[in-house]
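Journal club prep — side note

Before the paper discussion, L.F. wants everyone to see what a predicted structure for a comparable chain looks like in token form. Sequence:
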Amino acid sequence: MGSQALQILRQGVWASLTGGWYVDPHQSTFSNCFHLYLWIFLLAFPFLLYMALPPSLVVAGVYSAVVAVFFTAIKVVNYRLHTMFDLGEIVEKKDSHVGVEMTVFRKVNSTPPVRCSSQHSLFGLNQVSVRITIFYKSMQSPFFSLHHFSNSTQSQENTLMIEEKAKPKQYYRFWVLPGKWLRVRYDRLALLALLDRNRRVGENVFAVVLASLVAFLGFLLLLQGFFRDIWVFQFCLVIASCQYSLLKSVQPDAASPMHGHNWIIVYSRPVYFCLCCVMIWIFDLSGRSGSLQPFSLYGVTFFSAHFLLFIRDMLIVFALCFPVIFLFGLLPQVNTFVMCLLEQIDMHIFGGTATTSPLSSLFSLIRSVLVAALLYGFCLGAINAPWGDAHVPVLFSVFCGLLLALSYHLSRQSSDPTILWSVFCFTLSIMDPLPEKLHNSVKEILHSDLVMCPLMAVITFAISASTVFIALQPALSLVLYILAGVVGFITHYLLPQLRKQLPWFCLAHPVLRSREYSQFEVRDAAQLMWFEKLYAWLQCVEKYFIYPAVVLNSLTTEARTVGQNHKELDIYRALFISVAGMKLLRTSFCAPSQQYVTLCFTTLFFHFDYPHFSETFLIDYYFMSILFSKMWDLLYKLRFVLTYIAPWQITWGSAFHAFAQPFAVPHSAVLFVQAIFSAIFSTPLNPVLGSAVFVTSYTRPVKFWERDYNTKRVDHSNTRLATQLDRNPGADDNNLNSIFYEHLTRSLQHSLCGDLLLGRWGNYTTGDCFILASDYLNALVHIIEIGNGLVTFQLRGLEFRGTYCQQREVEAITEGVEEDEGCCCCEPGHLPHMLSFNAAFGQRWLAWEVAATKYVLEGYSISDNNAASMLQVFDLRKILITYYVKSIIYYVSRSSKMEEWLTNETIQEALRPCLGPNYVDSDPTFNLNIDEDYDHRASGITPSSFCMVYLDWIQYCNSRRQTPVTCERDSPLVSLCFGLCILGRRALGTASHSMSASLEPFLYGLHALFKGDFRITSPRDEWVFADMDLLNRVVAPGVRMSLKLHQDHFTSPDEYEDPMVLYDAITANEEKMLISHEGDPVWRSAILANMPSLLALRHIMDDGSDEYKIIMLNKRFLSFRVIKVNRECVRGLWAGQQQELVFLRNRNPERGSIQNAKQALRNMINSSCDQPIGYPIYVSPLTTSYAGGHSQLRSVWGGPISPHNIYTWLISSWDRLQKGCGAGCNSGGNIEDSDCGGGSTSISTNPAVHTTQSTPASSLPQPMEAGLLTTLQRTSSIQGLLCQQLSSSQLSFSSSVAPPPLQGPERFCPASLLENSGHRAGQRAGLGQSGGLHYESHFGKWSFSGRKGFNGTAAVEGEGITVQTIRTQVSRLLVF
């Protein structure tokens, strides 16, 4: 502990103060001396120049030139040496040299250093002798050699000087000039310890330019006399630290977001120093010249000479405090600073959304500036136009129309330009249906905006030109403010409180409950409730009617005032009107949940309380919106701090926490100052080492994490084959379970935006964090960007079997407090449907709250059974082997290549010995205990014993073929089945090392075959290599199907004795289930494509356990508890973990900062950090969810208004009119009756349930043969499949008239389904054609079969394309 503290003080604290220089006792004297003299030169050179020479620009130029030459020399030599190490060859010394040696002696210590890191050691552990030897070699020019030796002899006490004989063995050639080179006996680690490496030439040039700029700008400030006395030396110290960091930087820096060497952080000090110097110079020049015209706002005069000089002095103090600022890590690395600055400007000035990368922040800001510049021209022209008492200039009405239309369009677009670019550069992926859905959603938004933006512009122009905002003043303004306040209060406060689990932390149950609230297990999608429709419509009215009217009203008032009273600042007022209108409109479109509070406060404060402080309503509203965003951040920070340090619920995770707790009391005053500072600059407020002492970190974007860390699943597609067979990578639970969080991310992508707009997660805003908690899934959802109809989020999945601390916090968020009857120290009880005093008090002192208890998402239920318990006895293994053999026979008979195999000469020649009457296979693998066809008299398996058991099954499978073949005892088909069954069992025995009597080897062999590791070692089985499909399409799926049949055997032991039942069960499993190893890429594809059921055999090797489990997945609707966490709590704990692990180097896995704290969910939040800071098992990429894909929201608001939808509506309306006229002119028929044939217009378009990312299996009509249905009716183990088929047949009409399900690769089926898919498609086509109802009227001919409501020709064609797509997809998967 002491050595670690010294290391932190030396490499962290002292190095941060000096810019990277510190004395390392583990390094050589040469390295430490080089660093010391280098730092002294950079410090003393500008100081001596300033003190000794008269101030002039010539001196500044000379100083910067010397620095440039000095840095160029160092960077060139360093770059050339690294290039030599990369490309040069080591030269072995073979000849002797004669020369004169100049030796630098070094005092030898009696003992070597105790600890020495190999990464930072310059010359090794032993003593070092550095020699510069001048050699002369056969008329060549002299060159220098730097020797690197290690003294192998032991150092003796009282020895002052030692001279060693040079014994170099190898060296590098460093070419200086053609024909001249230096002999270098140096290594890469020594050079890295001496100087930082710049890998590219551009980095070296940029470093030299930065060093020169630091020298010139810093000396220029010295010449202007901004510093006196000791502050001159302090400023020279800042210059030296900035320049030294370009040669040997602080690693890791206090603001570094990553372990190891961070090359970006190297440029932080010089870049910030140059910016600070330029701003000091600009403010000084502006303040002295007085060229800027000052103006007053709320009593504060801006841009006056005093104001500008005050800002200059603040920047001077800021520059002098650079060592302390970088010690505490208050400034981020350069790219993070640029992203945060651009994001804050776009959000608070132009009303933009949060960004996802530096590129997206730059794109968003440029987009906003261009729109503001376009609007500024119209606004300036409208202000300069004449304004009458009841007249609005046409140009201003045009400005209002463009403003509303462009603001609406910007609010509907994501800040990520790659999403928009994907529309133009889109390639369809057969394996992954998600890019196509994202592409369609973006296209839908663009097509809708193509209609809505001109329509909104025209309507706004008409309203503005009608002078309604002038004629109805001031009553209209008051009515709009009251209406906005009332609707906002009901929408964003009253309804969310009534829907919370604990309304106002007083009621024990929600007042407005969903239909799933009282259900123990959710079996269907969430139902659409009346209050959800009300919430959605109130939001629609608020966003598209009330707030646009409020903003346009204030814009008209402001522009009229400016236009009638022309002043010199009109051009700036026009710019402000354009920017303020765009910001307020975009904010009301994207995040209206907090606008009513800002609007009500602005109205009450400036109109009633302090009207003399008011400027204009537009200015007041604009600046109050910025102020309130910071006030909300301050409120959340104070809540987090007070909750975290409350003495009655403090949790000490370590001794340091108990030690730091008393210091939190005098720290409170500074703490609140830090909270205000951090709220202004959007910086996290993090607890030091998880204690009650808080410090401010550096500013971060809403995204928070600077690295784009995403989980990479390890499977057979990205690992070597030898690694798969030997070490089985990715076999740990975390890697295998990460796929469920990936599927959960896909489900959220389809439903999150719509569910938020329906109020199912309560109130939300940018940066909010939620925890989804289920039986085994615990995920943190970070909402990053909120647009008008889109949400960008990131999901972080935690471990299934978490630590003890995680389990305690999971219990805290899942247990209810309704039964608590305590009041202080007694238990008097509580009123009905109310919380007790203790429960209500405790809920108010938490950094989280339960937003919903029954949030429904589509997912997979996971059940795992121990394979050892299912195969413990020999009888159970015999059943498995029997099903294994029968599955092989089934796949042989179902294969389309069976006739080819039966006529293959190589295969038949190899199987001919099996036809002999005395043939017996007596391999040691076969055993009487597990092989049902074992002949104990022959001590093996004979064809006769095999046929006695399996001939009936072979004949039945052959009879189910379309073209049966000869199937007698001596037929080629029986011989082929016999050979493959022998081969399959021998492969199992080989993988089990022929130890069939032991369970562990048997499970090992079964798992090896299950994942496809077939090792053919017997010469009698080499005939299978004649066609590898015998292994891939017969034996491999046979061993997998046998495991499923063996699992079904426990529910109905005697069911599969009937060949018909067994055959139909295997067929049904092939159609409805995927059985595969979890490392196979097809497993991930099937889950993401929503396969109804999956089965796998998992080998778990974790924490000393070695067990096998049968994993069964069934797609169903899962119920989650939605926990809303204080976003400042999450940001603060994340920042604290990053500082503790990266800068303070705390590697203790049981550190106090990750111990459980139920009031703040400290362990769960810290576990969700990016690896290696945290340990989530899955971190999703930034994912965007669109509201257009939510079927329930579309049923409330209707579909998008796009050109295609308008065209479709016109055509359908014309068809309905034509049919109605035809029915009316033909014997007085009813129009409504005839309209039922038209499609979906006679059916309710409001779906009862929420259609999620794919159509469930129960809603997909899949006709089955009559024999199969008859068999399923008397089968008990596959009742679920029968129910699904019956429900699909019952829902076939309603599903056909509803919006059609997404086709293509979203429907997934195994390969065995494809063989009969064409036949079934033909049956459906025939049914649709024969069932068509035709009618011919006086006006034309039309038929029901061509409509979408029935299985007509169009539907059959689309389904045929779907089947073909599925066949192509699965065939490719199976090939690979």
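L.F.'s comment for the group: The two ends are 53 Å apart (CA to CA). Keep this in mind when we get to the figures.
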